[in-house]
Amino acid sequence: MDKKLKKLEEEQRRLMNEIDNMKNTNKHNSAGSSGSLLQFVIGLVLLGAGLFWIFQSVHVSSSFGSFYHIGSWAAPNGTIIIPLLIGIVMLFLMERKIFGWIVTGIGIAIILIAVITSVRLYFTGGNLFNYILMFGFTAVGGGLVLKNLFKK
pTM (2 decimals)? Predict the structure, then answer.
């Protein structure tokens, strides 16, 4: 009986030590998580500031003229609307509307591609220090955010 009691007593001590160790590790983890939360927030602020600065330094213009160039072939801008119009007509005339929807979707995609490819982006003139800071903020902020998102 004495041996069983000693074994139970040792087992209880071992379990109590494990519980104490778990409490200590949880205290360390919670302190580390507040530090990592601070790093994450600082990273978000730096990333946001860097991206805002970059976006403020870019001018956007459009070169959408009277012709849309596909390689060496120049199509008038009105011709890119033809597939959309054909698709809409097909929706009203055909009983199986799936083909009309497909042609309409292709027409919308052609128009979106034409608009997107006609946009031109230009960086404004600035000094090297500003460019290093804006891309540095973005890189450091992105690194901190990714570090805290994918940390084990």
Answer: 0.54
